[in-house]
Structure formats: structure tokens, C-alpha cells
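Annual report, structural modelling task.

Input specification for the manganese (II) ion complex:
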Amino acid sequence: MNTYSLPNLPYPYDALEPAIDRTTMEIHHQKHHQAYLNNLNTMLEKYPALVEQKLEEFLRTPPTSVVNKADLNFFKNNAGGFLNHNFFWTILGPQKEIDEKLRGEVENKFGSLTNFKIEFTKTAVSHFGSGWAWLVRDPQGELKIYSLPNQDTPYQNDDTPLLTLDLWEHAYYLKYQNRRAEYIENWWTILKLL
Ligand code: MN
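The model returned the following structure:
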């Protein structure tokens, strides 16, 4: 029983070059993303009662009465890893269209697109260790920037993801080694959402 499957990238593996090279994209999608998915499906086989539940709901309100404590963390990390990557691929690429409404909201909230990029970049560069930088909408409708560790997701804060950046070394290490700031600077060139 495989409940979820790996979504295809909405563009070829080399479509994000030179910002993100083809080999990094292949490994990231076929190995890392696939591994989160495989682990997630393994957990769903163990807890078939959860198959019907939306993963976002699972992450918002972990089913502590159904899943034992040791599995819960593993389940959360892999469900998060699967969803985070699903979302990440879709905001990038040459065919992606600018979301004018979101761009307007970002300009209102942060003063300008440039200011938003400065603030988001600062959050991403200074995040310690593995994780993701996020632009989210909170339950009151406010836009917020923050980073989260590991494969945590905004769902746990009851927030809705709008934009994200993978800060794990597997996302950039082949090309950029320790130069996270350079990866982030180049990443803006393939983000077509704003
Ligand atoms: Mn990743």
C-alpha cells in the first residue's frame, strides 16, 4: 500500500541552472525527497488509520493517541519533508508566473519587494543548521517571515505557507559548499513567484 507518490518536477532537472545545478536537483528530488516519501509511506502502512487524514492536519494536530511517541517524531519529520519539498519545487522555475496579488501584499507589509528580500535573506542566512526559511500567512491574515529547524512546517503554528527556501546543505552543497549566502542570492533569480 503506497499512499503517496513522488510528484514530478514541473520542469527539467537542468531548468534552474546556473543557480541550482542539474546533479543537485537530481539527487535532491530522486534521493532526498524520495526518502522522505518512502519513510512516510512506511509509517502509513504501520498506522493505516491515518491514511485518510490530510498530512497538513496531521502536522497541525499530531495524533498522539494513535501513534506511539517514538514513531511520532519520525512520522512528523518525514511527512514534513515530503510536503516541504512538494511545495518548494512548485514556486521555482522558468514557467512559474508572478503572483501579483501576493507581491502587492508583500510590498504593503514590508515596504518594498527589496526590503522583503533583505529581511527574508537575513533570516535564511542566519538560520543555524538544517531547516527552511518561510513566508507565511498567520491565522489573522498577517504575513510573517521566520525559519524553522529540520523538516518542521508552518502547519504546526497554524500558518499557511506562501513561499519557502530549503536551507539543508543537500540543497546546495555540491555547487556552493559552505557558501549558503551565495546560494540564497542566486536562488532569488529562479523564484518567479514575486
Ligand atoms: Mn531538501
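The first strand starts at residue 131 and ends at 137.
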